[in-house]
What we know:
Blueprint: H1 2-16, H2 21-33, H3 37-47, H4 49-55, H5 66-94, E1 131-132, E2 148-155, H6 162-172, E3 179-184, E4 186-188, E5 191-193, E6 201-207, E7 215-219, H7 222-225, H8 233-263, H9 287-305, H10 319-322, E8 336-340, E9 345-350, E10 353-359, E11 370-379, E12 392-396, E13 402-404, E14 421-422, H11 425-434, E15 440-444
Parallel strand pairs: 2-3, 5-10, 8-15, 13-14
Antiparallel strand pairs: 1-2, 3-6, 4-5, 6-7, 8-9, 9-10, 11-12, 11-15, 12-13
Helix pairs in contact: 1-2, 2-3, 8-9
Amino acid sequence: xxxxxxxxxxxxxxxxxxxxxxxxxxxxxxxxxxxxxxxxxxxxxxxxxxxxxxxxxxxxxxxxxxxxxxxxxxxxxxxxxxxxxxxxxxxxxxxxxxxxxxxxxxxxxxxxxxxxxxxxxxxxxxxxxxxxxxxxxxxxxxxxxxxxxxxxxxxxxxxxxxxxxxxxxxxxxxxxxxxxxxxxxxxxxxxxxxxxxxxxxxxxxxxxxxxxxxxxxxxxxxxxxxxxxxxxxxxxxxxxxxxxxxxxxxxxxxxxxxxxxxxxxxxxxxxxxxxxxxxxxxxxxxxxxxxxxxxxxxxxxxxxxxxxxxxxxxxxxxxxxxxxxxxxxxxxxxxxxxxxxxxxxxxxxxxxxxxxxxxxxxxxxxxxxxxxxxxxxxxxxxxxxxxxxxxxxxxxxxxxxxxxxxxxxxxxxxxxxxxxxxxxxxxxxxxxxxxxxxxxxxxxxxxxxxxxxxxxxxxxxxxxxxxxxxxxxxxxxx
Length: 478
C-alpha cells in the first residue's frame, strides 16, 4: 500500500514536472519493485543520464528502435496537451460548448485514448456544498435533492490570465465540482464590490450527470468570449445561494476571531456567540451558521498559525472545502467597518472587498477620525425603536459615539449630528446583523468610493436572545 502511494505521488509529480529526470528515475524504481518492467523502462528512458549515473550503465533501450516509438508518443502527448489548451481558448473566444478531457496519465502507452477528467466525490467536507437540481433553500443551504456540489471562483483582474486560470481551476482542480462558476467583481477606487457578482458572471462549467467526467462550458460575458452570451438564469440562482452562505461564513469567522481575542479561548459552540446582551457577539443564528461553526473554528485556528490572504484550498474543514475544494479567490480577513467623512459613506469590508457601502449622516468636524471597535450592541436603545437612536445602536470603544438609527431620516447624507454616525433603518438593521462585537471601525476621509452597494435581499439572522438593555439611558452624541 505504501509503495502504491509513492507511485501515485510520483506520477502526479512527473505530470506537473515532466523535465525532472530524478523524479522519472524514482518512479521507474518504484515500478520495477512491482514487476512492471515496461513502465519502469519508459521512466528510465525519461530519466536519461540520471539513470546512467545511478545505475552506472547506459539503459539497454537507449539506442534501440523502441526509443523512436517513445519519442513519437511524447510528441503525441505534447500535441494532445496543446490541443486541450487550444480547445479551452476556443471556448473562451467563441463561447462554444466543449467537452473537456482530463490530464493524461504519465505511464500510459502510445496507443492509449485521451482520459476523461476524473471525478472526485463531494463527501467528507464538514460544510455541505450548495447543490443544484432543486430550488435552493431560503437560508442559502443545499437544494432539496442534495446531489451535486457547486464551486465559485472570483477572478482577480490583476492576474495575468484570470479567466483562463479560473477555468483551469474549475476543470482540473483538486476536486472537480459538478457546477463551477467564475465571476468578476466590479472595481471602484481600488476596491472590489461584492454585490456586483451577478453582473460580472463570466462562465459556468457543468459536468455530466452520467459520471463520465466530461464537462460543458457556457460563456456569459460577451467581451470574454466574443459571442452571444448563454442563458444565465439557472447559474444566477446557484450564485445567489452560494453568495448568501459566503456572507454567513464571513460573519461567523469574524465573530469567532473577535470572541477569541477578547476571551482568550475559542468558543465551544455557536451558543457562546449567540447570547443575551451584553455578550451578544452575534445578533442571532441560522441553520447555516450552525452547520459551518466547526469548520469555521478550525479555519480560524489555522489562520492563527499561518495567516493567508485567501482561503487555502487544501485546508480541510474550511470554506474552501465546502467550496468543492477550490479556493474562491476572496479574502479571509475579518470584517471591518470603514467610515468616510468626505462622502458620507459607511462600508463593511473584508480585505479589498466591499460587502456593503451605505449612505450615512455625520457631524462634520464633530465626528472624530481614528480607529475604534464595537464595544456594545443594543436593540431599541432607551426602550424605543422609533426614538432619536432608532431601533439599533453600536457603541464605539465605550465612548459617547455610536453607529445608530435616527428619527430624522432627511439628515442622512448630511453633517447634522453631534458626532455620531446616523443610518437609515433598513441599512442599520442589516449592518447590525452582519457586525459582531469587537469589530474594528476606522473613521477617515477620502477612503471609500461613492458607489452605494446593497443587495436586493438583505442579510438577516434569526434573533433568539434578548439584546435590549432597559437598565441604561443612552446619551450618545446624536
